[in-house]
């Protein structure tokens, strides 16, 4: 089931949402949640039994494969994943060289982020792909974000953390990151966390795929794994999935975990907007890669971020920071009464000549000039766009669809979820087994029109649409 990964194909999960990362999301949302028992365990019944036939649409990606893993480990015996591509799915935001991950994202997704790095560091499925090089989360000048980072540092220290340090100035930063010795970063400040750094994304997904094969999870890829529509009973509940080759897969429960494709496949009442981000690489020499070995992952909210070069390929991945791009088209997802305008992902696997808009390419060049001036002018290769899907409040949409009983939604990654790969499936499995807490059930409920009342969403200006931009399309 698992395929070996050889190239970088997406970004996602590397764009922090400041307020959520500080840990306010679960606390503020829970204030409005319904009352629950003293142990806060859901009183809702299970959606499936251990012998139920379960289909996971988009099972070759992050949320889908993690869900399959947790269900199989709990003893569910009839699981099948459906995807256009085998694990690691080339349509997944996780089909990538690396993603930011670490132990500093406390309180994210109702607190489930707190255990994520421990799982990366302890679960043998994931441990080989976790790179504990540290992380620099930096801001430019005395900005509101710098203030939030300082608050985050104080909170981590109050929890007894000894692996964090406040970097007050350029000299502090360069002490932690000597490779920035020639960087033009006067006025920068931020948080250093010594636990975490980055994870080898596609390699980790491939490892999950191999584990699923050992656990007996079935699959269908290609045309027999590509969603066409839901199959409904006379009462409107879900009985399975029809794929584009006409195959009808019967199921007791269907999980929609198709990432950025989710709102295009099934009507979600406008709760998810799919957006793309971009990345490029510099091919380093073995000597250049060795000189940057073990560097902490560096993120700056204005200029972007980059990672330790991959040891196997010597590729240095770089990304700019911006609100993402949309790709609005007229489509009719299953359940919609008429065609509607939605942002539709443009698969890089199916459009391999796509690169990135000129403005983003210029911004990545700016990132290099400021932080790694010795690499200025080097060719930027393997340029591409990748796709994830945002909810307004950057919280998952993890619930049963109110119009289609028997359809569980596991989507709304909001650019954070790959770091959650080892643990997100636990939350989906808890929902399916009726064990999800009332607080989390409320946080991740079906919520069209709810907006972002607690300010946990991505924020910033509205994204531009690809139709307005040049430089990326080479058909």
TrEMBL record:
One of its GO terms (molecular function) is flavin adenine dinucleotide binding. Belongs to the MSOX/MTOX family. Keywords: FAD, Flavoprotein, Oxidoreductase. This is Uncharacterized protein. It comes from Kwoniella shandongensis. Its cofactor is FAD. Residues 461-475 have a biased composition (Basic and acidic residues). Residues 1-36, 443-475 are annotated as: Disordered. InterPro entries: FAD-dep_OxRdtase, FAD/NAD-bd_sf, MTOX. Signal peptide: none annotated.
């Amino acid at each position: 089931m698992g395929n070996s990964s050889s190239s970088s194909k997406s970004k996602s999960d590397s764009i922090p949402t400041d307020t959520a990362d500080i840990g306010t999301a679960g606390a503020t949302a829970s204030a409005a949640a319904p009352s629950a028992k003293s142990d806060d365990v859901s009183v809702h019944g299970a959606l499936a039994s251990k012998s139920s036939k379960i289909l996971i649409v988009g099972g070759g990606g992050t949320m889908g494969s993690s869900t399959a893993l947790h269900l199989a480990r709990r003893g569910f015996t009839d699981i099948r994943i459906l995807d256009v591509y085998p694990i690691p799915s080339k349509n997944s935001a996780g089909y990538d060289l690396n993603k930011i991950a670490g132990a500093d994202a406390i309180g994210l997704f109702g607190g489930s982020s707190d255990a994520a790095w421990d799982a990366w560091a302890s679960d043998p499925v994931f441990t080989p792909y976790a790179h504990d090089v540290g992380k620099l989360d930096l801001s430019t000048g005395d900005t509101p974000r710098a203030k939030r980072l300082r608050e985050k540092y104080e909170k981590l220290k109050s929890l007894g953390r000894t692996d964090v340090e406040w970097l007050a100035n350029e000299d502090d930063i360069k002490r932690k990151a000597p490779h920035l010795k020639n960087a033009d970063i006067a006025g920068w400040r931020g948080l250093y966390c010594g636990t975490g750094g980055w994870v080898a994304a596609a390699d980790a997904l491939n490892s999950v795929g191999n584990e699923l094969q050992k656990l007996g999870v079935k699959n269908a890829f290609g045309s027999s794994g590509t969603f066409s529509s839901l199959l409904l009973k006379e009462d409107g509940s879900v009985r399975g999935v029809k794929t584009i080759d006409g195959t009808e897969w019967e199921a007791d429960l269907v999980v929609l975990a198709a990432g950025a494709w989710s709102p295009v496949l099934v009507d979600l009442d406008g709760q998810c907007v799919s957006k793309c981000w971009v990345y490029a690489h510099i091919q380093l020499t073995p000597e250049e890669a060795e000189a940057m070995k073990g560097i902490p992952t560096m993120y700056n909210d204005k200029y972007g971020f980059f990672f330790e070069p991959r040891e196997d390929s010597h590729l240095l991945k770089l990304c700019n920071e911006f609100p993402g791009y949309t790709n609005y088209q007229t489509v009719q997802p299953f359940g919609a009464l008429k065609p509607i305008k939605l942002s539709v992902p443009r698969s890089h696997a199916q459009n391999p000549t796509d690169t990135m808009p000129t403005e983003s390419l210029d911004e990545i060049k700016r990132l290099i000039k400021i932080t790694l001036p010795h690499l200025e002018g080097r060719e930027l290769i393997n340029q591409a766009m990748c796709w994830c899907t945002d909810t307004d409040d950057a919280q998952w949409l993890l619930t049963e669809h109110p119009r289609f009983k028997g359809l569980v939604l596991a989507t709304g990654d909001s650019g954070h979820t790959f770091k959650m790969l080892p643990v997100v499936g636990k939350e989906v499995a808890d929902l399916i087994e009726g064990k999800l807490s009332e607080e989390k059930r409320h946080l991740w409920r079906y919520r069209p029109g709810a907006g972002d009342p607690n300010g946990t969403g991505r924020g910033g200006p509205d994204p531009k649409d690809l139709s307005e931009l040049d430089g990326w399309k080479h058909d």
